[in-house]
Structure formats: C-alpha cells, structure tokens
C-alpha cells in the first residue's frame, strides 16, 4: 500500500472539498446578530447532543472527577501539542510569519523538553504561541461566517467554521505524515481532552445545558459572541446578542 500516495489523495480531496463548500455555503458575511435559517434542524441536533451528554459525557465526567487535575492537564497539554503543526500551517496561510515561528518553537519545546507535550515548558519560558484554525484563515481571507449550525457531537459552529474543521483535519501534518494506527493517537487524545474539560468545568456545562430556560439559544449566543471576539470582529461590549430575541423579527 502506498501510504504517502493515499495521504496525498486525501489532501487533494480535502482541498477540492474546500473549494466546493466555499462556493456552496460561505458567501454571505454576517458580522453581528444571528443568522440561523436552519434553526429547526439545529434544535433537533441540539436535543441529540444534550441526550448524548446526559447519557454518556456527564457520567464519564462524573467518573473523571476522581482523576487528579494534573492528569487531565497533561492530557490537555498533549492534545493541544498535537494541534500545533496545523496551527503553524494556518499561521502561514494567514501570512502571520511571527506566529508561525512562535508556534513552531512552542511545538519543538513542548515535544522535546515537555516529554511529547505532556508538560508545557514553552509557556513557562514565555513562548505562548497563537491558537488558530482554518476557520480563522477563511476569516482572514474575507470569507463570512455564514449561517449558524449545530453539529452532532461537536456542537455549535457556523458554515465557515464547519468547513474549517474539515480542512484542519485534512491538512494537519501529524495526520499526513504519521502512519496508521499511530495516527489515531491524535483522535483519542482529542476525545480524552474533551472528557477532561467536561469533568473540570462540569458546573458550567450543567448550568448551560440543564438550568437554562433555552439551552439552545444560550449555546448559540455564547458561541457566536466568543468566536467573533476571538477573531477580533467585536469588543466585549458591542458583541451582545439577546439569546431569546427572534433573529428575524422586523
């Protein structure tokens, strides 16, 4: 089996998919407010995700509360470190050469000195890096966020960020260069990291999903506000959206 030939075909497929989805769904920029034309479908998917949390993630997180915080921190560090090569690629695509250099240095330090990324000596040395993704790359290239979407398992997103997730998976050098089955270590690390986050921030998750009058509207609000703030589209003061407001009311 030509492993690297298969990887090249997957990369080419990802790039073709990128072009098709750009033409299909991400043409209309939305800088503020809520664009949710698929709300009925999104709410149905949200109900599925809440059920998944209640029956799987919440019990796993409860069990994970017995795990020392240092262990979850190490899992999170390892998962984040595996994303660093993709962040280098996106920094280059965004023409942010300084961020690309810093992300490369951070990956090298944490991989070598931090025992494969289990520890984070780079932060202690002031090499914080810059977290980014292909969704942000599309934003830098002028692509609007598109309609709001709720994805199965992954949760809140937009058309632009959904495309970004697909391309990030396709272009991450870890997945392109590491053979099977070792490449699946990355997927396992990301899943364990999410369980760790669910355990460490269980009160916040429970409050959002089970104590809100409308958990779908709250999740949509928080995602859009945080994402726009992260991309520098809004300040903390001018990004407020009423979660219970009808986005199509005149």
Break the fold down into its secondary structure elements and pairings.
Elements: H1 3-25, H2 39-64, H3 69-93, H4 97-112, H5 121-124, H6 134-140, E1 148-151, E2 155-158, H7 159-171, H8 173-177, H9 184-200, H10 202-210, H11 215-230
Antiparallel strand pairs: 1-2
> For the residues shown, what is the average pLDDT?
85
Tell me which oligomeric state these chains represent: single chain
| Count of individual domains | 1
Report the principal-axis shape.
globular
Largest β sheet strand count, sense and barrel closure: 2 strands, antiparallel
Amino-to-carboxy terminus distance: 59 Å
The beta-strand count equals 2
One letter per element, helices H and strands E, the order comes to HHHHHHEEHHHHH
Helix proportion range = 55-70%
Number of helices: 11
Structural class: mainly alpha
What is the strand arrangement across the widest sheet? Answer: 1-2
- How many whole angstroms does the radius of gyration measure? 19 Å
Question: How big a fraction of the residues is strand?
Answer: under 5%
Uncertain parts? 20-28, 239-250
Structural key phrases:
250 residues, mainly alpha, two-stranded antiparallel ribbon, 11 helices, disordered C terminus
């Amino acid at each position: 089996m030509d492993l690297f030939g298969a990887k090249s075909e997957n990369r080419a497929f990802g790039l073709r998919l990128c072009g098709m989805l750009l033409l299909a769904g991400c043409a209309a920029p939305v800088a503020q407010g809520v664009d949710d034309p698929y709300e009925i479908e999104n709410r149905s998917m949200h109900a599925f995700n809440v059920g998944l949390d209640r029956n799987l993630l919440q019990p796993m997180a409860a069990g994970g509360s017995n795990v020392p915080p240092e262990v979850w921190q190490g899992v999170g560090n390892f998962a984040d470190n595996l994303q660093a090569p993709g962040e280098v690629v996106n920094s280059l695509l965004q023409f942010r050469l300084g961020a690309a250099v810093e992300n490369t240095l951070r990956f090298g330090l944490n991989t070598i000195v931090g025992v494969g990324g289990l520890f984070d000596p780079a932060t202690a040395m002031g090499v914080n890096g810059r977290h980014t993704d292909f969704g942000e790359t599309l934003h830098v290239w002028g692509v609007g966020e598109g309609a709001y979407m709720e994805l199965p398992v992954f949760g809140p997103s937009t058309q632009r960020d959904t495309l970004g997730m697909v391309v990030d998976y396709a272009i991450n050098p870890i997945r392109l260069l590491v053979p099977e089955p070792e490449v699946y270590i990355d997927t396992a690390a990301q899943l364990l990291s999410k369980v760790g986050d669910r355990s460490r921030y269980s009160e916040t998750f429970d409050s959002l999903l089970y104590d809100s009058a409308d958990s779908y509207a709250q999740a949509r609000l928080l995602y859009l506000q945080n994402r726009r703030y992260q991309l520098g589209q809004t300040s903390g003061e001018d990004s407020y959206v009423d979660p219970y407001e009808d986005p199509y009311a005149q």
